[in-house]
Design brief:
heterodimer; A: 582 residues; alpha/beta; Rossmann fold; 4 domains; 22 strands; globular; B: 195 residues; Pyruvate-ferredoxin Oxidoreductase, domain 3; 6 strands
Chain lengths: 582, 195
């Protein structure tokens, strides 16, 4: 049976059919749907871990214990998980171990555009790169066989367009793979110098075996066509190249580490001119050049952003499209915004009003760096807000620290904010940290986390008590405030930033998109009372705009959260009344 | 047949994802190769979103390039204008006549272009404005805008009505099925140029 599946869903299906029994991940676009799809299979234990490092460690433990296991993350998540990855390359596996990493060329939803293929090279593990959903499933299944055959973790690398495109996938039954025996084997699994030195030898031998395998494996295939042009490519770039160039010759590499040598040389020797077409870094290109092959790569194709069939057609064939309907007028951009009713809006309205330096973090709230709230000064990586605030304090002194706050979401705080907060306490900082507790992991689309009290399967579980946690690590000033109580929130922030000791404000209000969050329905502006002072527009609510000389509230967007009602000094915002539609 | 390319453009949260899945589902039932490219993550938060549906004998790139779309289904006027260059010369541009100000307009840093429908018509004769919100309300739910538009579009795809209804049945949650069927019918039987 064929089904239309996202690349991510196909990877989940592949894991299911390959008999995987343990999956641990941390959400991150564009990888999140893999683990969400896996969570629907009762045969697989799945979980959201506090961060990618823990997730990979869980997967490693499961593998050593004999299970086929998986961990999925976005590209920057692999930075967090790099530590266990590098040494698991030395230990190898018992049950097959597969990590999935989803890169984001073009940065649809990321803070950088790193190329994860470097990790496979650096950690000396096998990496596969599918180019559509069927390959996502097939490669995932095959990855488990290879992991066990070569005693190595395998990384599957996707990109946004592979992860988030649906294409047809042939569905089969799940294989019944029994747990492998567990044997105590410190020479293999205890990596201290004496053992690790021996395992490094094994790793290098494995690389040679993989190298030989790469020359003649099903993942790397030649599609002969016109031999005037040869294209070496992988992943989504293969699809773009096929569409743009049609019947030329292709060497499609599905295994991107290690790369074959003889296969590449043979291919190149049979075509007139060779283009290496790969998004982001010149990994394949440099390999070809190292082999002494003359190929055209990044001198023609960009290092930045996504490719397209048009780009390839233009660069290779010199064909530029004509007759495009070109709009001359400036079209306003439409950046993403905080949703109507978003709890972060109240908080950032206050921070903006107080003109504080805001050490920021990763989540929906990063959008508050944009106008009109414009109240975020930095955003580097998960958890960086807290260490960053302490660094500012240590660089510029306590008086400066009284104008600085770190803001971090609940899930991000659990991910990697706790250690930063311990640093503040331990090293006598006075920084103020605001934890945005919206009862969910928001940006990636509502995953439960350790502060929500629910597991990935929606089962109730123990809930991390943020207040107790902060107190336990030595923060004596911990306040819980509703960010929609603007006056109280402002008062609390003012008190805490001036306090000469570490403090935490927990800004507590659930995400407006959660099902249980109910508002009373749309509001409207009473034009008789409205003075058009536009104070409400400083909230940056997408439902409020100034049209035809009046402040207006869009009935299709407004949910009636009531924040604008609180900032309006003329009581001009009221319930929309009867024209409200369900 | 040569591949068909349909773009669905709009504002994050308008239900473009569901629309693309309905189209994808119809295309598979016709036995075509299909690719649907979606947007998840940050842009879903009220940003400009675009999803691509391509179907035919064999589809490689999931992405539609400029000048390639047979149909653009625009959920909002400004987004129709933004993505116009992606329309084929003889492609059809179906526009929901809704205006949603983007943040730069709300804060006064940019202006929402005036008379977008007229401007679009100066480029092509194939602009079809639809007041889908009106019909979604008539069907019983403002969120059914997407299915009203699908209904209107369905006539221009050469795929029969029953197949579309079947796809809707498979794609939308059962408790919204009746509303969506009504929304589809309202869209399907709209006359061209009728608001």
């Amino acid at each position: 049976m064929k089904k239309l599946l996202l690349g991510n869903e196909a990877i989940a299906r592949g894991a299911y059919e390959a008999g995987v029994t343990v999956v641990s991940s941390y959400p991150g676009t564009p990888s999140t749907e893999i683990t969400e799809a896996i969570a629907k299979y009762d045969e697989i234990y799945s979980e959201w871990a506090p961060n990618e490092k823990v997730a990979v460690e869980v997967a490693i433990g499961a593998s050593i214990a004999g299970a086929r296991s998986m961990s999925c993350m976005k590209h920057v998540g692999l930075n967090v998980a790099a530590d266990p990855l590098f040494t698991s390359s030395y230990t190898g596996v018992n049950g097959g171990l597969v990590l999935v990493v989803a890169d984001d060329p073009g940065m649809h939803s990321s803070q950088n555009e790193q190329d994860s293929r470097h990790y496979a090279k650096a950690a000396k593990v096998l990496m596969l790169e599918p180019s559509d959903s069927q390959e996502c499933k097939d490669f995932t299944m095959k990855a488990y066989e290879l992991s066990e055959q070569f005693d190595t973790p395998v990384i599957i690398r996707t990109s946004t367009r592979v992860s988030h495109s649906q294409s047809l996938v042939e569905i089969s039954e799940r294989q019944n793979i029994p747990l492998k025996d567990y044997k105590k084997d410190p020479q293999k699994y205890v990596m201290m110098p004496g053992m690790a030195k021996k395992r490094h030898v094994v790793v290098e031998e494995r690389m040679k075996a993989l190298q030989a395998y790469a020359e003649n494996c099903e993942f790397n295939r030649i599609e002969w066509g016109d031999k005037k042009i040869g294209v070496i490519t992988s992943g989504i770039a293969y699809q773009y190249a096929r569409e743009a160039l049609g019947n030329v010759s292709y060497l499609k590499l599905g295994m991107v580490h290690p790369l074959p040598e003889k296969l590449i040389k043979d291919f190149i020797s049979q075509v007139d001119k060779v283009y290496v077409i790969e998004e982001l870094d010149p990994v394949i290109e440099e390999h070809c050049k190292k082999l002494g092959c003359n190929v055209i790569g990044k001198e023609l194709f960009p290092l930045l952003g996504e490719y397209s069939a048009d780009l390839i057609r233009e660069k290779v064939l010199g064909i530029k499209k004509e007759n495009i309907m070109e709009v001359k007028e400036d079209i306003p951009v439409r950046p993403p915004v905080l949703c109507p009713g978003c709890p972060h809006r109240g908080m950032f309205y206050v921070l903006s009003k107080l003109k504080l330096v805001v050490s920021g973090d990763i989540g929906c709230y990063t959008l508050c760096a944009l106008p009109p709230l414009q109240s975020m000064d930095t955003c580097v990586c998960m958890g960086a807000s807290i260490g960053g605030a302490l660094g500012m304090e240590k660089a510029r002194g306590k008086e400066f620290a009284k104008k600085v706050v770190a803001v971090i979401g609940d899930s991000t705080f659990i991910h990697s904010g706790i250690t930063g907060l311990i640093d503040i306490v331990y090293n006598k900082g006075i920084s103020t940290v605001i934890i945005l507790d919206n009862s969910i992991t928001g940006m990636t689309g509502h995953q439960p986390n350790p502060t929500t009290g629910f597991t990935i399967k929606g089962e109730p579980t123990r809930q991390v008590d943020l207040v107790k946690l902060c107190e336990a690590i030595g923060v004596e000033r911990v306040k819980v405030v509703d960010p929609f109580e603007l006056a109280e929130f402002e008062k609390t922030v003012k008190e805490e930033i001036t306090a000469e000791e570490p403090s935490v404000i927990i800004s507590q209000r659930p995400c407006a998109l959660l099902k249980h969050v109910k508002f009373e329905g749309p509001l409207a502006v009473n034009q008789d009372k409205c003075t058009k002072c536009k104070l409400c527009m400083r909230l940056g609510c997408p439902a409020i705009s100034f049209k035809e000389g009046n402040i207006q509230i869009d009935v299709t967007l407004c949910n009636g959260c009531g924040l604008c009602l609180k900032v309006c000094k003329f009581s001009s915002i009221e319930k929309a009344g009867d024209f409200h539609v369900k | 047949m040569s591949n068909k390319s349909i773009m669905i453009v709009g504002v994050g949260g308008q239900g473009t994802l569901l629309a693309s899945r309905i189209i994808g589902s119809v295309a598979i039932d016709q036995g075509y190769d299909v690719k649907v490219s979606e947007v998840h993550g940050m842009s879903q938060r009220g940003g400009s979103v675009v999803t691509y549906v391509k179907y035919g004998d064999k589809v490689y790139s999931p992405i539609i390039s400029e000048g390639e779309a047979d149909i653009i289904l625009a959920f909002e006027e400004l987004e129709a204008y933004r993505w116009l260059p992606y329309l084929k010369k003889d492609g059809k541009l179906i526009v929901n006549t809704q205006n949603i100000d983007p943040m730069p307009v709300i804060i006064g840093a940019a202006k929402y272009p005036e008379n977008i429908l007229n401007k679009l018509s100066s480029f092509t004769n194939n602009v079809f404005p639809v007041d889908a919100l009106k019909y979604a309300i008539k069907a019983g739910n403002v969120k059914a805008v997407n299915v009203v538009l699908i209904g209107f579009m369905a006539k221009y795809t050469g795929i029969d009505k029953e197949s579309w209804l079947k796809a809707i049945m498979k794609t939308v949650p059962s408790k919204f099925l009746e509303v969506n069927k009504t929304a589809f019918e309202l869209g399907y039987y709209l006359e061209e140029g009728y608001h």
